[in-house]
Amino acid sequence: MAEMTMVQGLNLSLHQNMAADPRVIVCGQDVGRDGGVFRVTEGLLEKFGPKRVLDSPLAEAGIVGTSIGMALYGLRPVAEMQFSGFSYQAFHFVEEHMARLRNRTRGRCSVPMVLRMPYGGGIRALEHHSESKEAYWAHTPGVKVVIPSGPRNARALLSAAIADPDPVIFYEPKLLYRAFREEVPDEPETMEIGKAKIVRSGTQLTLISYGSMMRVAQEAAEDLVELHGVDVELIDLLTVSPMDDATFVESAKKTGRVVVVHEGHRTCGIAPEVIARLNEKAFDRLEAPIRRVTCYDVHFPLFSVEQFYLPDPDRIIKVALEMLKY
Amino acid sequence: MARRKLTISETVEELSILSPTGEVDESLDPHISSDDLLRIYRFMVLTRMCDDRMLRLQRQGRLGTFAPTRGQEATQIGYSYALTKEDWLVPSFRAPGSLFWRGWPIEQILLLYNGYEAGNRVPDGNNDLPISVPVGTQALLAVGIGMGMNIKGEKNAVLTVFGDGTTSEGDVSEAFNFAGVYNAPVVFVCENNQYAISLPRVSQTRAETIAQKALAFGFDGVKVDGNDVLAVIVATRAALEKARNGGGPTPKCWKTSGETLRLTFKKRWSVSRRCAYLNRRRFLILPTPRFRRNCRSKSRSFWSTSS
């Protein structure tokens, strides 16, 4: 058991999985010599050699396309997009092949690969380095979309993604890469993909979030409990596709009030999907209309104003208190 | 400081073994057994007959949209003949001949084009991918498979196919580049039928040949007469052999009859013009009649001219 950042947790998962399974390989821009621009793949090249740690040419479609090919040939590639903002050049490979080959071949071929990419704002980055477009991927059947929120679950979920027989898009909240440390067990650990986690139990209002917004939601929950006396239930989705609606539907039936918080755009995002499912499955138990606190429907701004664009605890608390008065 | 001319030393090989009238160049003849020549011929005819039949069925509304393959029998059967069962085939959406040769049942192809998912199920034991509808994407999958062969240390090769229009896709350039960088055992086959739906080859690229595109990525390109099944076999064998022995990728460009899409998308040509074209070229250009002439020539013992 050691205290680790998310980057170290992810790195531990890669080291252990590569050591345990010779089929696991890592590829992407600067993942070898440089250890990845965020150092998630540090030390892998030295330990496993250039045959299993591939410094890829600067071409996202090429990285994803060849990873699919390697997966078809029986390997388990873990491919990295340097930033999710550049993954769109590989979008067609996810949509046209990665997500479809199992179905297209009636189960004869599968694509057991992980596509890792750092996402999200708050790091004072250039344009295209801060977006949260998980909804794009969640809209494609045939891929799982996993978004961890801390060092321990990042490590466990990445290991589960590598072991998964089908493609997983692993969206890493880069704001949390080094934001805090957590105890991470030394021995291999996995978590079930597609399972949400109740982080705090409560009776009056359910806060649903995931990824980097979990910290913001957590802060809002603490303030709501301590300053406003609201008994909040906090849920971490962890996987946005497939969505664990059983957990949040049960919670909504208990509290009757739900706020969904995420960093992606407001329209056609993950929150609307959560709300639609609650509408279908918990409508008669709701005390107030479900609300969402999200980024706005404009492009992610340059960083001088990003703090106004990203949801913060105050926005969540304001919405929560309005709901309690409804 | 200087301004000077750099000479690029590489050249593109051009290969043709059968003349348009079916005479074989003895010095280049691969000396394939009579049984195999007959089998190759039968599959070429089968591919052609199937294609004609499917086109009629499609025109009658009894089959969905498919990509006709008329005039490309020599390339498909030729490169398939050169592949071993362990080698991988990553086809384009215009490859029924190669799928037939690799053992895909005809009814499965018909199922596919009648809208049944079962048509795409790769037969057990086959190292094939199903057809790829988004043009050019399959090339990168093939390179990934080749990279996998290198990582696992297995001495197989992978062959992937696309058309001349597809060479305009960035994915094909990325595939060439990755194949070069990782020395992947890949043979890229461009079936240059000279049209991409409505657009002629000259509107896709200013390059004189498609094969020469390989040079920029650091490996060899070969231009082959795609209506000449023997040339296709010889060139594919050489490229596969080179790939298996660590020589990396080779792209090949087959120039085929170029009739395929003109027949499908007839709005470009009037009926009389099409007929005139076919009558003029049928027995000289099309690969199957050309190969039939060769099979029936005096030099081949298995099929007398009187039969």
Order of helices and strands of chain B: EHHEHHHEHEEEHEHEHHH
Measured between the Cα atoms of the first and last residue of chain A, the distance is 46 Å
Work out the strand percent of chain A: 15-25%
How many E-type strands of chain A? 14
The CATH homologous superfamily of the largest domain in chain A is named: Thiamin diphosphate (ThDP)-binding fold, Pyr/PP domains
Major beta sheet, strand line-up of chain A: 3-2-4-5-7-6-12
Query: Helicity of chain B, in percent?
Result: 40-55%
The CATH architecture of chain B: 3-Layer(aba) Sandwich
CATH architecture of the largest domain in chain A: 3-Layer(aba) Sandwich
- For this structure, the CATH topology of chain B is Rossmann fold
CATH homologous superfamily grouping of chain B: Thiamin diphosphate (ThDP)-binding fold, Pyr/PP domains
The H/E string of chain A reads EHEHEHEHHEHEHEEEEHEEHEHEHH
**Could you name the CATH topology of the largest domain in chain A?**
Rossmann fold
DSSP E strands of chain B, number: 8
Question: What strand line-up does the widest sheet of chain B have?
Answer: 1-7-8-4-3-2
Structural class of chain B: alpha/beta
Number of helices of chain B: 11
| Strand residue content of chain B | 5-15%
Explain the overall architecture.
The complex is a heterodimer of chains A (326) and B (307). With 326 residues, chain A is of the alpha/beta class. Chain A is 37% helix and 18% strand. Chain A folds into two domains: 2-184, Thiamin diphosphate (ThDP)-binding fold, Pyr/PP domains (Rossmann fold), CATH 3.40.50; 197-325, Rossmann fold. Chain A has helices spanning 6-20, 44-48, 60-72, 91-98, 101-104, 134-138, 151-163, 213-228, 245-255, 270-282, 306-309, 313-325; strands spanning 2-4, 24-28, 53-55, 76-80, 114-119, 144-146, 168-173, 182-184, 197-200, 205-209, 232-236, 239-241, 258-261, 291-293. In chain A, α8 (213-228) crosses α12. The N and C termini of chain A lie far apart (46 Å). Chain B has one domain (13-295): Thiamin diphosphate (ThDP)-binding fold, Pyr/PP domains (Rossmann fold). Mean pLDDT of chain B is 86; it is low at 257-267. The chains are: A alpha/beta (326), B alpha/beta (307). Chains A and B meet through α3, α4 and α5 of A and α5 and α6 of B.
